[in-house]
Amino acid sequence: MEKLLVVAFTEPDGSLSPQSIESIHAGHALAGPELILGLVGGDVQPALGQLQAIGARRCLAVAGPEFSQPRYATDATAAEALARAAEATLIVAAGTPRTQRILPGVAHRLGGRADTHVTAAAFEGDDLLVSRWFYRQRMEGSLAREQRPWAILLEPGCAVGGGKAAEGALPAVELLSVETPEVLRRTQVEGRQAPSPDQQTIRPDADLLFVVGAGWTKKQADGQVHGVDAEKLIRGFLQASRASLGSSKSLVDMSGEGQAVLPFLSHLNQVGQTGATPRHPKGLSTCCHGEEPHAVGWRFVRERRAINLDPNCGWARGKADVLYVADAFAVMEKVNELLS
Ligand SMILES: Cc1cc2nc3c(=O)[nH]c(=O)nc-3n(C[C@H](O)[C@H](O)[C@H](O)COP(=O)(O)OP(=O)(O)OC[C@H]3O[C@@H](n4cnc5c(N)ncnc54)[C@H](O)[C@@H]3O)c2cc1C
User: Fold this and answer.
1) In whole angstroms, what is the distance from residue 9 CA to residue 7 CA?
2) pLDDT tens digits for range 45-66
C-alpha cells in the first residue's frame, strides 16, 4: 500500500498558491482520505484555514521564520523531514521553480527517484502510472517506477477541474521539529527582481492567451502600415485584460531582425511547434493565419477564438471554435473601449 505525501510550500503571507492547492486535490484524487499533507513555510496557519475541507489522514508541517525563504538547504531539509515522518512512498508537489529545484535532490537523499513535468497520474490496479511529454511535447509517454520513494512534480494547470473534490475534514496539524544549523542558513534571499507587471507580457496563470500575428504589421486596406496603432491596441488590451501575450513566429522573427515592429515581443512569446505550448483556458488569436506549425502550440488551450480578415485562414479549418472574419484593428479598438 502506497503512502502518498503532498508537499506544499506556503507563500510569504502563509497562504497556498493555486498551484499548490491543485496538487493537493490531485493527491487526494490518488490517495483519498489516506492522503498525508506536508506544509512548509514561515507561517502555515493561513494555509490550514484554506484546507479545512480536505480529507486527509495526517497533516504534517514544518514552520518557522527560517523556512519562509525559498532557499535550497532549508527547503530540502524540510521536505526530507516531512517525507521521513510520513514514511512516504510517493511524494507529490506542484512543479514550481521552488519545488523543481529541491525535490530531485530530496529523492536522492532518500534513495528514491524523481520525475518532473508530470501531466497526469493515475493508479492502474496497484501500480501508479504517470504521463509526461518528451521531445518538445511531440510525444507523450506513460511510465511507472519500482524505486521508492518516488517524487512526482505535477505540471501546474493539468489537474484543474479534474479529479474529485477533496472533501472531508483536516486532522490536527503535527508540527515537526527540524534543526536548521548555521550551515543551512548561509544563503539569504535579499529580495526579488521582476519586470514591472506592464513589461511582463508572459503570464502563465492568465485565463486568456492573446496571440498576435504578422498581420498587425502588414499594409492595411488604406495601403498603409499602422504599427503605432497596433502597439497601442495590443498594449491597451493586455493592460485591461491581464492576458498573456503570445505571438506567431513570423512576427517575433521580424522583431528579432531589428525591424521597428512591436518592440515588446521576443522569441519567448512565440507559440507553436518551435515555440511554447502554453496552458490557458482560453485563447484569442489576432492577425495570425493559424498555420499548423503555429496552431500545434495551442493544443492545451481549451476554448479558441480568432480574428482574421481571411475566411479561408487556418483557424477556419477546424482549429478555432469561433472565427470572427473581421478587421482586428477595429475589433480590438471596440473591445478596449468596452474594457475601459
Ligand atoms: C519547421 C517550422 C516550424 C515553425 N514553427 C512555428 C512556430 O513555432 N510558431 C509559429 O507561429 N509559426 C511557426 N512556423 C511558421 C508558420 O508556418 C507560419 O509561417 C507563421 O505562423 C505565420 O505567421 P502569421 O500567421 O503571423 O503571419 P502570416 O502568415 O503573414 O499571416 C498574417 C495574417 O494576418 C491576417 N491579417 C492581416 N491584417 C489583418 C487585420 N487587419 N485583421 C485581421 N487579420 C488580419 C491575414 O489575413 C493573415 O492571415 C514554423 C514553420 C516551419 C517550417
Assistant:
1) 7
2) 999 999 988 889 999 999 999 9
C-alpha grid cell, residue 230? 497596433
Same fold, 4-185 and 208-339: yes
Domain ranges of the chain: 4-185, 208-339
What residues form DSSP beta bridges with 173? 59
The span from the CA of 3 to the CA of 263, in Å, is 51
Domain 208-339: which CATH class?
A: alpha beta
The pLDDT tens digits of the residues spanning 289-336 come to 999 999 999 999 999 999 999 999 999 999 999 999 999 999 999 999
What is the reported pLDDT for 199?
77
Task: Calculate the dihedral angle through the C-alpha atoms of 122, 126, 127, 129, rounding to the nearest 10 degrees.
Answer: 0
Ligand 1 atom showing the smallest separation from residue 307 Cα: 43
Q: 4-185 architecture in CATH?
A: 3-Layer(aba) Sandwich (3.40)
Tally of helices (H runs) and strands (E runs) in the chain? 8, 14
User: Which atom of ligand 1 sits closest to the CA of residue 313?
Assistant: 49
With a Cβ cut-off of 6 Å, ligand 1 is lined by 213-215, 218, 220, 248-251, 270-275, 287-289, 291, 293-294, 297, 307-310, 313, 327-329
